[in-house]
Design goal:
Blueprint: H1 5-15, H2 18-27, H3 42-54, E1 59-63, H4 71-91, E2 95-99, H5 110-126, E3 131-133, H6 141-152, E4 160-165, H7 171-178, E5 185-188, H8 203-219, E6 224-227, H9 231-244, E7 251-256, H10 261-269, E8 274-280, H11 285-294, H12 297-308
Parallel strand pairs: 1-2, 1-8, 2-3, 3-4, 4-5, 5-6, 6-7, 7-8
Helix pairs in contact: 1-11, 4-5, 5-6, 8-9
The chain binds dihydroflavine-adenine dinucleotide (FDA).
Length: 309
């Protein structure tokens, strides 16, 4: 969200080109995806997870994958999450799972996505681990909120949470509508290529909305995961938290693996819960493109890697 809209738009457009997709996918991690992705398999993710835990960071782990069109692909993702969960338990790693609804089959059928999420949650809830249902592009927003509400009929707020995106006009209303559930919400600015009919095109509006959403949520005493690398926003919210005397067990900070690691360490050193989001898996293309679109300067480092060969 930090740069002119046209450059973000250009990156998304280029990334949709099949030749670009083939090229980037082929040269893969060498082009720079490895800066943002822990690795392509579970072992690589566990090694990164262990190291980050040792450095004092709790984690949210995502097995990469989205927009699946076949039930078997969603089923394979569920199996991987169950393997991941077993490995976390076995190794005593401090992490929760972060899941994309379209990876669970939301694009195919709501019932399928619900059944798949429920399968994972039945296991995670038994061992006392949390699952975050992520928020994707706007065609999925309504269905994702329905999915979350339905899951909450079986699982309490300590076992499953949701995400709201500050760039969407609708998020303020969604926050009000969710309040009865005392939800655990991750607040993000929003990473997808949305039209001005649904999302604020200007960064200043997104930031203002972000502040207001988090403040409203914290005022109610509900748990907030403040997921941003924007240090000004973080300081504004900390000033609000201080003024209102909001206790530290009501919020945490979250940042993405590979983005502003110094800021991550600084937040940890100030004694805040600083959770790092660790994605892994072979389906890293969409995730990588969103990281480039957030910051066109990242395209420069991809080109440098390319020239280096
Ligand atoms: P902003 O984009 O204003 O960046 C602030 C500063 O952070 C920049 O000036 C730069 O220094 C640094 N920075 C940000 N992005 C960078 C990048 N890619 N490379 C290098 N530096 C960068 N989105 C979504 O739609 N659904 C979701 O479920 C999630 N989940 C999620 C979880 C977690 C833990 C985080 C941190 C983020 C998400 N997001 C997300 C992504 C989010 O919507 C947003 O796109 C990014 O966090 C970037 O926005 P910032 O809030 O960091 O602000």
């Amino acid at each position: 969200m930090a740069q002119p809209h046209w450059s973000r738009q250009l990156i998304f457009t280029l990334a949709g080109n099949p030749a670009v997709t083939r090229f980037v996918t082929h040269y893969g991690m060498r082009l720079g995806a490895s800066r943002f992705v822990a690795g392509e398999d579970l072992d690589a993710a566990l090694a990164v997870a262990r190291r980050l835990n040792q450095e004092g960071f709790p984690l949210a782990i995502q097995f990469l994958g989205e927009h699946v069109t076949r039930p078997e692909a969603a089923e394979a993702a569920v199996e991987e999450y169950l393997r991941l969960l077993a490995a976390l338990e076995e190794r005593g790693i401090d992490a929760y799972l972060s899941i994309k609804p379209s990876q669970m089959g939301l694009a195919v059928d709501e019932e399928l996505a619900y059944a798949n999420c429920r399968r994972i949650l039945e296991r995670t809830a038994t061992v006392g681990r949390f699952v975050r249902i992520e928020m994707e592009d706007s065609p999925y927003t309504e269905r994702t909120l329905r999915l979350y509400r339905r899951l909450r009929q079986r699982f309490d707020t300590g076992h499953v949470g949701i995400v709201l995106q500050a760039y969407l006009y609708r998020s303020a209303q969604d926050l009000e509508a969710l309040a009865d559930l005392e939800p655990n919400i991750r607040f993000v600015k929003g990473a997808y290529n949305e039209p001005a009919s649904v999302a604020y095109p200007n960064k200043a509006d997104v930031d203002r909305n972000y502040r207001q959403l988090v403040q409203r949520h914290l005022e109610r005493g509900h748990y907030a995961a403040i997921a941003t690398h924007d240090d000004r926003l973080i300081e504004d919210l900390l000033a609000f938290i201080e003024r209102r005397g909001i206790p530290r067990d009501r919020f945490e900070f979250q940042m993405l693996y590979g983005i502003r690691p110094q800021l991550q360490r600084a937040m940890r050193d100030r004694g805040y819960t600083m959770r790092v989001y660790v994605p892994y898996g072979r389906e890293w293309y969409g995730y990588f493109v969103r990281r480039l679109a957030e910051r066109p300067a990242n395209v420069g480092f991809v080109l440098r890697n390319l020239l280096r060969g």
